[in-house]
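--- STAGE predict ---
source: upstream dedup step, 1 unique chain passed
mode: sequence only
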Amino acid sequence: MTTMDAISDMPLLEVERLCVEFDTRAGVVHGLRGVDLSIRRGETLAIVGESGSGKSVTAQAVMGLIDVPGRIVSGDIKWKGQSLLTGDGPKRAREIRGKEVSLIFQDPMTSLNPLLTVGAQIAEVLQRHLGMTKTQARTRVLELLEAVGIPAPPRRANQYPHELSGGMRQRIMIAMAIACEPQLLIADEPTTALDVTIQAQVLELIAGLQETLNLSVILITHDLGVVAGLCRRVAVMYAGRIVEMGLADDLFERPSHPYTQGLIRSTPRLDDRMNRLIAIEGSPPSLLSPPVGCSFRARCPIAVERCTEQPPLAVVHPGASAACWRPSVPAWQESPPLEAALT
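--- STAGE serialize ---
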């Protein structure tokens, strides 16, 4: 392998043993408890899990948006091999945020400024990061609005967020995120509260932009159907930790962790008519006082005494790792893989 090959194969982003805590009146919430992940150029990584599992906190930590009462207590975040947390890292993190790494927030209505036109908000990104003049920024804003499928860009650029539909506001957020042609795009539940048709359009738009701009994408979602259609790799999070990681095709065909098996089993399928969905029993643990050992132990149907010890994220078969003392292919999965049913 040549030096250039080694550089191109280097992960853009590496998250190493990241721990994040939040001070609350009830006590310290352990939001992330040793998260490890990486993503390379042009790759799409999905992060899935129940609400409160740490998906959005991971995105905010990467973007440098963890603020009081939150704090990063240990671990590291590296961009192109250089730390964003130590030495001059925090300064570098501010420089790349919005320029090389962008985030599509979950709710565009609360993320957009209601007092500024959408055109002015996109232009601000261009002037701040690329030093464009107002005239240059205006021209680029119209190009971006057209690129994300907004009709009549000159008119829409002069409108305020409340004058646009939910789907259009989400497209505005995408336009802001890609304005500086970043290398990594983090999409945090980009289709929340949108109807099914608009969801499909937004996801198709992200996929098209990824191909056009050679973007790396981290897609945070709870929708396994979205994962099956878009993502190459999947990280499954539970109670602030990654419990399974692997190629999407492999994960749908052979989920190893009981929690992943539960998620897939509780997902409706087009090829299997059930009178009632099979839910995962119990509730996620409180991160004010995380349980000792495997966090899924209280809800796990195959838990054993050893589960009182924390299992490491270890390779269970080629292309897949799971944090479980008893990883297995579920006996109930006799029908074709979920991915085939969703696509």
